[in-house]
Structure formats: structure tokens, C-alpha cells
Amino acid sequence: MTMNSLLFKAVEGKRLTPAEALDILKNASWTDVVEAGNTVRHRLNPGNKVGYTAFRIVNYTNVCEITCSFCSFCRPAHSSEAYVLSLDEIRQKTNEAKAKGADQIFLQGGVNKDIPLNYYVDVLKMLTRELGVKVRGFSPVELKRIAEFNNMTLDELLDILKEAGLSSVPGAGAEILSDRMRQLLSPKKLPAQVWCGTLATCHRKGLPGSANIVFGSIETPEEIIEHLDYVRKTQDIAQGFKSFVVWTFQPQTDKFPIRHVRGDEYLKLLALSRLYLDNIPHIEVSLLGMGLSLGELGLHSGADDINSIVIEENVLQNHGLTTIEAAEEFIRNAGFTPYRRSLNFD
Question: Strand 166-168 to strand 305-310: parallel, antiparallel, or no bridges (unpaired)?
Fold first, then answer.
């Protein structure tokens, strides 16, 4: 089978095998892959619309025991820079975000065993019942550890958090779903299969979300395809991923090897993700990580969404947009019609 026929197979809506996707990643022209990705994008999402949302990231604590090798945000509990935000501080951040047009909060922090369960419940109730915002929160490793710290099952914890107001979960902490790479990232990271199983449980509980890949280290092409296959298989099981985002590692520490990712390499993987993840409705381009010029090209390479304006970002350097007006102008200038959606693409 020639490379053109592999791309044609995907364009026609037939599922690529892992071996075929690896062949495309290694051997296909990036321009051919981008063209195919754009074609599939318009088949799955007809019309000329591009979505965005407006939420604020609230990092409720920077104390974390996972100590990822690429992360410069976390602090040990004894550090003078360690913090846990109070309810009043979170309320203030939320009201600031609402004043800028945001109606959703992305609640995420470190793995901090000293935070009691009632803190999370009180925060969620305040955000949803008092302040009237929707909340996406807690990465898989946060959820697993919170459940363990409180001697309960993940199902029991999710019932409590959902009743308090949690409406969706991020696919954070995926990076590369290869256990070899996860040992390099952090030996305390969830193994790939556990990460997938945790999100499948969330999705079955009615807590949908997103998935992502972060590349640009010493991962192999085989591991990139392994990652995409983990995500696709998880989606086959639970159907909870509403979107998929392609990121690149940003230099934060000298403990983790990061390489330069060329623009054509990023766009090729973005497009391949659109081709391979035939069961995920939306592909988001990472404006925050990749910048506006490459982001605009991403919208012609398989992506149909720009994620969100960034009101606050403490972990990564922000190369994206900060206002709703700027997001809509960007989408129009790229040749599309903007529409605002929720965290769950409702």
C-alpha cells in the first residue's frame, strides 16, 4: 500500500492501524498529511466554524509530591514559597475572571496530601452555587491520590466531587503515554494504563473532558503512536474525550531533555492526530504553547478549535490570547467564523 493510499484511507473515514499511522509519521510528506487532516476536519465538522472558550486556570496549590522532572511550578510543603489558596482567594480570582467574560474555571493543583477532602467540596460548591461558574478540575493523578489519601475508591470520590459541582475533568498529566518516557518524566507519574483507566472511570461517571499529547523530548515515533493508540482505545471504551490537544514541552528545568520542534513537525502530528483519532470530535491547536502564526496554520491542518483565552497561566509561558475580542478577531483573520463553546463543547 502506498503512502497516498494510506492517507486516502483516512480521508474516506476508514480506521488507520498503529502500523499505518507510524508509516505516515515516519515517511509521509508533512504537506500531504496536513492536507488530509484538513479534509477530515471539514468532513467531521462541516461548516467554517472554529471554537474557543473563556476560562481561568486556578492553581489552588503549588505543593506537589509527584516532582515531575520538567516542572518548575511545584514546591515542597516546607518551602517558603508553598501555598494553598483560601476560598476567599479563589473567589477573588473567579470574580476577576467573570469581569473579563469568563464563565468557567479550570481548577488544578499539585498532589498535596495535607489538603482535606472538605476543602475540595467547599471550593466546588462556592464556585458553582455561589459564583455560578462551571468547573473542570483535577488531573488523573490528583484524583487517584485524593481518593487514596481519604481511604476511598475513585468512584466514591467522583460521586462526592460531582455532587459538589464538578462537571468535567482534564486529560492532564498525559505527556507521553509510554511507560519508558513516564519513568523519565517522573517515577511517581501514573502508568499509562492507569491514566487511561482513571479517565475512563470519570467518563463513565458523566465527567467528560479532553486528552492531549506533549512531545519534543527523547520520545520515539513508536511511542507517539503508542500514545495516540492509548487515547483512541480509551475513547472506544468510554466516549468521554470531547477534544484532543497537541502540545510541545517547554523548557522549565535542566532535569529533562527538551529538543526544538519545527513548525512542520508540529503541524504533521496535529494533522495525524485528526486522522488517527477518528472517534474524538474536535482537535484543538495550542495557541498558548505554539503561538499565533503556527496556530493559524493549525486551523488549516486539522484543528477546529483554539482552546481558550488565557486569563492566568502559572506553569507555562503564554504565547496565546488574553481576551474574548482577540480570540474572535484571530479566528476571523484566519478565515473562519468564531463560536464560543463550553469546556465540554456543549
Answer: unpaired
Contact 196, 203 (CB under 8 A): no
- Asked which of 18-27, 75-84, 272-281 is least confident by mean pLDDT, the reply is 75-84
Residues 124 and 166 sit within 8 Å (Cβ to Cβ): yes
- pLDDT reported for residue 318: 47
Contact at 8 Å (CB) between 38 and 300?
A: yes
The C-alpha cell at 309 is: 483565552
The residue type at 313: E
Side chain identity, residue 64: C
C-beta separation of 270 from 303 below 8 A: yes
CA distance 161 to 107: 12
Q: Check: pTM over 0.70? Answer yes or no.
A: yes
List Cβ neighbours of 150 (8 Å cut-off, separation of 6 or more). Answer: 117, 157
pLDDT greater than 70 at residue 133: yes
Say if residues 235 and 295 touch (Cβ distance below 8 Å).
Answer: no
Neighbours of 251 (CB within 10 A): 11
- The DSSP result for 306-320, as a single string, is EEEEES--SSS---S
Specify the pLDDT at position 314. Answer: 46
**Which cell goes with 59?**
492553581
CA 107 to chain centre: 13
Domains of the chain: 19-340 (3.20.20.70)
Bridge partners (DSSP) listed for residue 243: 210, 282
Percent of the chain with pLDDT over 90: 74
Pick the closest to residue 103 from 124, 72, 134 (CA basis).
134
Closest-CA residue to 54 (of 3, 98, 9): 98
d(CA 277, CA 304) in angstroms, rounded, equals 14
Residue that wins the pLDDT comparison between 77 and 31: 31
Cell 473563556, located at residue? 54
Q: Rounded to an integer, what distance in angstroms lies between the CA atom of residue 205 and that of residue 108?
A: 19
CA dihedral 276, 279, 284, 290 (to 10 degrees): -20
Query: What's the pLDDT band for 317 if we cut at 50, 70, 90?
Result: very low
